Amino acid sequence: MCSVGDGFGVDIQDVLEPKNYECNDCGNKFQGIGKKVTCPACQSNSVKLA
After folding, report:
1. What's residue 2's pLDDT?
2. 7 lies in a domain?
3. Which residues on neighbouring strands pair with residue 17, listed in sequence order?
4. How many domains does the chain divide into?
5. CA 1, CA 6: separation in Å to the nearest integer?
6. What is the mean pLDDT of residues 7-25?
7. Tell me, what CATH number does 31's domain have?
8. Which domain holds residue 27?
9. For a Cys-Cys bond, which of 40, 47, 49, 50 suits 20, CB 3.0-4.6 Å?
């Protein structure tokens, strides 16, 4: 896709800002970035925003 002039209206700061998560499997609390966050303690994908 080609874009000329203005950007796409995506705020990159919101994407790159770490968010607090909690693992539903082991209860570990951690910070993560992105859409597919994995628990660093048990590698579970079952996480929620804390």
Report:
1. 58
2. no
3. none
4. 1
5. 14
6. 79
7. 2.20.28
8. 14-49
9. 50
